[in-house]
Amino acid sequence: MSAPSIPTLSAHGAELPAIGFGTSSLGDCGEIVATALGLGYRLIDTAWKYGSERGVGEGMRASGVPRSEIFLTTKVSHEYLRADDFARSVEESLRNLGVDYVDLLMIHWPNPEIPLSEPVGALAKAKRQGLTRHIGVANFNIAMLDEAIRLCPEPLVNLQAEYHAHLDQTKLTQACRKRGLIFTAYCPLGRGRLLRDPVLADIAAHKGRTLAQIALRWLLQQGNIVAIPRSSNSARMAENLDVFDFTLAEEEMNRIAALKRHDGRIANPAGRAPAWD
Ligand SMILES: NC(=O)c1ccc[n+]([C@@H]2O[C@H](COP(=O)([O-])OP(=O)(O)OC[C@H]3O[C@@H](n4cnc5c(N)ncnc54)[C@H](OP(=O)(O)O)[C@@H]3O)[C@@H](O)[C@H]2O)c1
Known about the structure:
Oligomer: single chain
CATH class of the domain at 15-189 and 224-231: Alpha Beta
Bound molecules: NADP nicotinamide-adenine-dinucleotide phosphate
CATH superfamily of the domain at 15-189 and 224-231: NADP-dependent oxidoreductase domain
Helix content: 25-40%
Number of helices: 10
Distance between the termini: 43 Å
Largest sheet: 8 strands, parallel
Strand content: 15-25%
CATH topology of the domain at 15-189 and 224-231: TIM Barrel
Shape: globular
Strand order of the largest sheet: 3-4-5-6-7-8-9-10
Radius of gyration: 18 Å
């Protein structure tokens, strides 16, 4: 079976596949990443903090997929946002991954103790040094995003944040659209919680698709959104890629949007999480 063709989204010259592969908690994931690439994933999301960078590098090499065909993202952790620490962290990530550059480098979380000018300057420097092709942020609110855009001499192409049907992200996704950034949805399956949702199950049964496919399709169909589900199971990895040959009706999109909950947020670390929009 040939690998599915995945549509891409573009911003400031960056071309991101609409579905990527998440690697948090996968640890020593060489085989899993090689399997994901073999199935057709072309965006691999990692972070220094996940401890999966070495595995991602091994998986990329084992897959035989040329480096130039892979969109590789990593992130600098909030402890290392001072300019010097940031630069060291980027070097360590590249060593872990065994690559000369990543495609997208992000600030993983803001750090209220460190002025944004430090990591933003370091991001731009990493780009100018050729250590990353593009730069972005994760877990920023709109005010922080605007400050980062104002401070940064290079364009930010992406904001990565939690998004799934149980969490309303209307304001942040619209802010990204208006500012020309792609929005990457992490925890797109609510880290598994969405898979018990009866409305999603009902729509899935009606469409003859799986519940995970409905949850992912709902994100992608909004436009300007990339989703990065994680799975350690090859059948589920393949299932999560197979979301481009059907559409949800407007009424189905609205039913899913109505599933948002006040307690829907999963990633909300005290002391690090900003005042969410
Ligand atoms: N920037 C940030 O701060 C941040 C924070 C969190 C996550 N992320 C990124 O986003 C990625 C995705 O988020 P996540 O890993 O937290 O959660 P997720 O992708 O929402 O959910 C992963 C869970 O869903 C299960 N699953 C996957 N596909 C499935 C399917 N088709 N059917 C049934 N179950 C399925 C997986 O189990 P199996 O393995 O058994 O399939 C796993 O338990 C991360 O891996 C990471 O790369 C970024």
